[in-house]
Each structure stands twice: as structure tokens, then as C-alpha cells.
Amino acid sequence: MKSKLLVLGGSGLVGSSFINSSKNDYDVIFSYNNNKIKIPNTQSFQINLLNDDKIEKIIENYNPNIVLHTIANSNLDLCETDHDITDRLHIDVTQKIVNACTSINSKLIFLSTDAVFEGQLNKKYCETDTPNPINYYGKTKLKAEKIVLNGSINNVVLRTSVIYGWHEKSRFTNWILDYLKDNKSVDPFSDQFNTPTLIDDLVQVILQIIDKDISGLYHATGKTCLNRYQFATLLAKIFSYDQTLIHSVTKFEKKQNAPRPISTCLDSTKLENLLNFSFSDINSGIDHIFNKSKIN
């Protein structure tokens, strides 16, 4: 009998990519909010986790072996201005999910963020570094991490960053590529550094974590630390678009409600060594999505 796998947030980039890679090996059910999608050989249900208190009962009734929790408010500026919604979604909902998973002894895998760090140039953060988030998104995700790790020794927290791929939900790459394709200019930041993560890599890592029953806190990002302007320039180069359409900006020129760390690049060596896996650097990652673009 196949193990049961519940994906919370199945219509997003991570959720849908993971489902498509796991559906043949697991009995998969997934949730969605507004964006209903159909994936063969799976079940799904609609739920608004801000307005519906049934998630604990749903988890207990389905009784999955593994729960993948991908749900978050990824709009950092909205998180900064609406603390109530952010608290409810990141903290309260996560606590309910942890409660349910603990009661039925399900393994919970939670996606967190590099935004739990304050950001220092010329540094890659490892798991032993002390978090110190500077925006409300990062603060609530850090609280959620602690809830997950305190819930069970079997649970997993994966800190990841700027997830991209050849996918309709890959926001940054789609913005850059769609605009450049139409000969429109883009203005990515030159003072925000991250380690972008190829979705195909992240999916493979999660599958291995499940297969090997690994638990704990890990960083799970690509190898290359770069800013958004550099990322956009590499996209233009590999996709043969006009690089002169890319104009860098700084946080002083393009205001955002939520403060952004300068550099929250992560070191994923701990997880790579544990799994004998190597995350893609940015060039091989973009090459990968370029090759996919020629097929799809």
C-alpha cells in the first residue's frame, strides 16, 4: 500500500511541482484556496485557511503519513502592513497543522525562508547562525519554524529562497523573461542578494528526505549568491534577450513597505552532505529552465 501524502498549498509552485513528481509513488491529496488545478491520480479539496477552522479535522480524517506545508503569504509588503492576517496564516494555522500531525504521528515538512536572517554581505548563513529577521514576514516564519520543530522530533524545516523554474508560478523569472521577450525594460534590485533555488532540485531533496526519514532544520538553496540584477542579466544572456533593457535599482530608488535584508545567502552544505546531493549553481539552473522552455 502506498504511503499517504498531504500537500497543503498544492496549486503553488512548490506544491504542484512536488505533486507531479510524487503522485505515482504516493497516495496524494492536496489543498488549494482560489486556484483550482487538476492533477491526474490525485485528490484535492478547497480551503481558505484564514476563514476555515477545519484543517485539523481534515488532517486527522485523511491520516497522512507525511504532510508538506508550503502555505505562506509571500507578499512581504502586505505582511508588514497587515500583522493580523500574517499572524493567523503563518503562526496560528501552522500551530493547528502541527497539533493535527502530532495527534496522528504524521511527519511534517515545513518550508521556511532565508528572511529569518538580518542579512550580511560576504557571508553565507548556515544552520548554526542565529536568526534575526528584520521584517514581519521573517519574524512570523521564524516563530512558525519553532512551532514545527517543537511539535515532533520527526518534523523538518527547510529554509529556501527565490524558488524558480520553468513554471507559470515562477514569479521572478517569468517577470524578467516575459518583459524582455516583449522588449520591455525591467528594474530588478542590485542590493538584494539571495541564493536562488531551482524547483526541480528542491523537489528531489524533499523526496529524499521522505525516503530516508530525515528530520531537523536544514538550508535548501542553490549554490550561487547573487543579486536580482545579476540574476536577470544571466537570464537575458542564456535566453538571448537584450541585456540593455535591464536597469538596476536600489531600495533607495524603489521603495518597498517591508525592509529587505541586503544579503541572506544560505549555505546548504549540511543537507547536501547528508543526502549526497548537489544543488544547482545559477548557470546550470538557468540552463535547465532554458532547455525545458524548448520542450514545453
Judged by helices, strands and strand pairing, the structural class is alpha/beta
- What is the radius of gyration? 19 Å
Q: Which term fits the overall shape?
A: globular
CATH superfamily of the domain at 4-165 and 196-224 and 266-280: NAD(P)-binding Rossmann-like Domain
Report the mean per-residue pLDDT as an integer. 96
Question: CATH architecture of the domain at 4-165 and 196-224 and 266-280, please?
Answer: 3-Layer(aba) Sandwich
What is the CATH topology of the domain at 4-165 and 196-224 and 266-280?
Answer: Rossmann fold
**Largest β sheet strand count, sense and barrel closure:** 7 strands, parallel
Number of strands: 11
Determine the oligomeric state from the structure.
Answer: single chain
CATH class of the domain at 4-165 and 196-224 and 266-280: Alpha Beta
Number of helices: 10
Helix content: 40-55%
Distance between the termini: 34 Å
Helix and strand succession? EHEEHEHHEHEEHEEHEEHHH
Proportion of β residues?
Answer: 5-15%
Spatial sequence of strands, sheet with the most strands: 3-2-1-4-5-6-10
In terms of per-residue confidence, which ranges show pLDDT below 50 for 5 or more consecutive residues? none
Tag the structure with descriptive keywords:
296 residues; alpha/beta; Rossmann fold; seven-stranded parallel β-sheet; 15% strand; globular
Please tell me about this protein's structure.
The chain has a domain at 4-165 and 196-224 and 266-280: NAD(P)-binding Rossmann-like Domain (Rossmann fold, 3-Layer(aba) Sandwich). The two termini are 34 Å apart. A 7-stranded parallel sheet has the order 3-2-1-4-5-6-10, with helices on both faces. The chain has a two-stranded parallel ribbon with strand order 7-9. A two-stranded antiparallel sheet has the order 8-11. β1, α1 (13-22) and β2 (27-32) form a beta-alpha-beta unit. By secondary structure, it is α/β, with parallel strands linked by helices. The protein has 10 helices and 11 strands. α2 (55-62) packs parallel to α4 (83-104), α4 runs parallel beside α5 (136-151) and α8 (228-238) crosses α10 (282-295). Helix content is 40%, strand content 15%.
